[in-house]
Amino acid sequence: MRYMLYGLLSGFLLGSCAPAQPESGDVSAKEKILREEKLFHEAYESLDAAVLDRLLTAEYTLSHRGRDGYKTRRQFLDELGQLRTIFPALRITTDSIRYEAVDDGGRTRGLRTFTWRQDGTSGTYRERYTNYWQWDAGRWRLTSTELSTE
After folding, report:
1. pTM exceeds 0.85, yes or no
2. For the chain, how many structural domains are there in total?
3. Residue 87 DSSP class
4. Which of 12, 60, 117, 149 shows a CA-CA span of 20 to 30 A to 70?
5. CATH code assigned at 97
6. To 5 degrees, how large is the angle CA 67–CA 63–CA 57?
């Protein structure tokens, strides 16, 4: 009887131990991901490749619905640096951000608007994005982005 009680207790204790969580304290994963998302957008809007580089996983990919292929982390960062040269008066704004918990991370969705003026002509482009965040190397990092034209 005593061994059965030990077995039940040890089974209960082992079964009640949750896997290690990527963070502790009062701040939830959602709040931390949304904080990183805000930092991402601030860096994206100012075309700060150095900050963006720290927020992306090594395997980061960017894909566009309806188009073949994807861009790697390096391609994304390189093209970002060229935007300011091509469109010196480029302005990027982000709104309508929503968060959802998924599997082992989080997903954020929103709308991004690009406006510019070049050679006396104004332009606007809008895209919907979905960012996927995962715990990586001790922090939340962006692992992939899916885009679609608005």
Report:
1. no
2. 1
3. -
4. 117
5. 3.10.450.50
6. 165
